[in-house]
Amino acid sequence: MENIPSDPMMLLSFINMKLRDQYNSLDELCASMDIDRSELESRLAEAGFEYNPQQNKFW
Question: Domain count of the chain?
């Protein structure tokens, strides 16, 4: 996960932009970018964000 921002707010913005513009699901994004989904969700959860699959974004 070294190719994504480490700052939680920058990470949130980066991931939500990718989900909005390029990927139909978090699974698709993680597979394409070789990101561990549970680690990503954990990092964003620590900052108070949770993935909403219906909206395909973290909030």
Answer: 1
